[in-house]
Design a protein that fits this description.
Blueprint: E1 15-19, H1 27-46, E2 57-61, H2 65-73, H3 93-106, E3 110-111, H4 113-123, H5 127-143, E4 148-149, H6 151-175, H7 179-189, E5 196-197, H8 198-205, H9 209-221, E6 225-227, E7 232-235, H10 240-246
Parallel strand pairs: 1-2, 3-4
Antiparallel strand pairs: 5-7, 6-7
Helix pairs in contact: 3-4, 4-5, 4-6, 5-6, 7-8, 7-10
Length: 247
């Protein structure tokens, strides 16, 4: 934070700290960084420096919702609860298809509308999965030295994307859950990729309905599951159910 005192920072300027993939970072390190930023902001507010001469500091976290929730719930970093929060919803499949068509064309390659739609379906509109599928299907065609992304390239791209997605999203998501939450998710995974009846979770986990209600609320808050109609739940993270089945 000593950079804030540097003469290289002009008047009215400051420092922006960005941290991506917070689910893969050390929780203690994230708390330490957030706490340091809090102290810098507090020191600046208490100084006699005119507002127009102050050099600001801002921090941006990006990652899975459960990790952000952990930071917000931490007693040391309560100031983060005042932060502006943005959550990315799933992208409509027609928009994903069009994005694939346009991006592929901009790169000098081509893909049919049918194959672009299939790639969109496989991504389920999940923003990070959209990125992975697009990257790996393009790489598949590139390895063949072809300017055309075929159905086989889409299939190969999806397979490669799922491996990367498991490592970057599914595994860290489960690492951040408690044993009770994993028991709940494992009970749901028996039906994946189809929705699960809430009543079946109680039977499979051999727990009470109140237990199910408690962890249902926790996992919905953490964006790991979501309602899927009356009395039903489904995974909010693509492939998480299949990943659990493979363990």
């Amino acid at each position: 934070m000593c950079w804030l005192g540097s003469k290289k920072l002009g008047k009215g300027k400051g420092i922006l700290i960005t941290i991506d993939e917070t689910q893969a970072a050390s929780h203690d390190d994230l708390v330490a960084i957030a706490t340091a930023v809090q102290h810098v902001i507090a020191d600046a507010d208490e100084s006699d420096t005119p507002d127009e001469d102050k050099k600001g500091v801002a921090i941006v976290f990006a990652g899975l919702p459960y990790m952000i929730n952990d930071l917000l719930d931490n007693e040391v970093t309560t100031f983060l609860r005042r932060a502006l929060r943005r959550e990315l919803d799933n992208v409509p499949l027609p928009d994903v298809k069009n994005a694939f068509l346009e991006t592929v064309a901009d790169s000098g390659k081509t893909i049919s509308g049918e194959d672009a739609l299939e790639a969109a379906r496989q991504s389920e509109g999940y923003p990070y999965m959209v990125q992975l599928v697009g990257y790996y299907m393009w790489q598949s065609a590139q390895r063949r030295g072809s300017d055309v992304i075929t159905a086989d390239d889409v299939s190969t791209g999806v397979s490669d994307a799922l491996l990367a997605f498991d490592d970057a999203v599914c595994a860290p998501a489960l690492d951040g859950t408690t044993s009770a939450e994993r028991l709940f998710l494992a009970a749901m995974a028996k039906d994946s990729p189809n929705p699960t009846q809430v009543g079946d979770i109680a039977d499979r986990a051999r727990r009470s309905r109140s237990w199910v209600s408690k962890y249902r609320a926790v996992l919905i808050k953490d964006k790991l599951i979501r309602p899927a109609g009356h009395g039903q739940l489904e995974f909010a993270v693509p492939h998480l159910g299949q990943y659990l089945q493979s363990l």
